[in-house]
Amino acid sequence: MSPSIFQINIKPDTPGEVGLPKMPIESTIVTEWGLEGDYNRFRKKEKDNDRDMAVMIISTDILDALNNEGWPVKPGDLGENITLANIDYASMAPGQKYKIGAIELEISIICNPCSNLYKLSYVGEEKGPQFIKTLMNRRGWYARVLKTGQISAGDAVSLLYI
Asked: Pfam family example for this protein (predicted)?
């Protein structure tokens, strides 16, 4: 099967809540700052709107692995904006450029797990440290938007540059 967008996820700025889990939508516009309708408090407040962190992506193989390890992770739970299907997460690396629907992204940095993940119903304070350890190097990638445009669930994904 060809690589594609499995799910698009956003969460608007909601006072008193963290930015996850993100909820699925069918399509959206992606600007140089990220997905329309999504708010990333960490990027905006702590990282001065760093464009290298405009979009977070992950692949379903990581979600499947986490489920097999007993963590009932669903697309959007880890805060990713775009959940990709039929791409090997282990093959993704900084500097790679992808065409995703009408947009182009360049993987910039790995997304490290944080204590906001404790808010997930199946994690909590008690299991939080174990979940953080489990997610090291597996939470997803931040990416810079090279070409803006619209994306929709099911759009094709292709590697442009390694």
From this structure: MOSC
**Which tens digit of pLDDT belongs to each residue from 130-142?**
999 999 999 999 9
In terms of Cα–Cα distance, which of 162, 150, 158, 107 is closest to 3?
Answer: 158
What confidence tens digit (pLDDT) does each residue in 7-61 have? 999 998 888 888 889 999 999 999 999 999 998 765 665 566 689 999 999 999 9
Stated pTM of the model: 0.94
What's the domain range around 145? 4-161
Show the beta-strand stretches assigned E in 11-156: 23-25, 27-31, 34-35, 55-59, 82-85, 97-100, 103-110, 141-147, 149-152
Identify the CA nearest to 5 among candidates 74, 72, 60, 67. 60
| CATH code, 30 | 2.40.33.20
CA angle 124, 128, 133 (to 5 degrees): 155
Tokens, residue 89 = 């997460």
91-112 pLDDT, tens digit each:
999 999 999 999 999 999 999 9
Quick check: 6 and 81 in contact, CB under 8 A?
no
Q: How many domains are contained in the chain?
A: 1
